[in-house]
Description:
single chain, alpha/beta, seven-stranded mixed sheet, 2 helices, 16% helix, 41% strand
Amino acid sequence: MRAADRREGALDRGHIARILDAGFIPIRKPGKLPWTKRRYEYILEYGSDALEIHEDAIRPGQRVLIVDDLLATGGTARATTNLVKRLGGQVHGLAFLIELVALNGRSKLPGENIHTILQY
């Protein structure tokens, strides 16, 4: 199963899910998803934010690959992994197109399997 924290960005996450022959789980900002949701609020360097996921999106024990275009400070990636784990999912890995190394986002994801294409 594939999860993504928003619809915008450089990657077509639905297309990636099709290539992997996997399902797609949208994880969005509050108020963007219908149905019953789980919410995770988190602190960023410049304030706070929240993400939501459908309550029935992940089965317990289901392996999930989190895909996003950018790993910067790691706050949103950490929040996404927390949402997946709260629903009983296993984070199989995180894949990013770009990593901004100087912002040290990996430090917020200890023990996670992280893959990036480009590092700046």
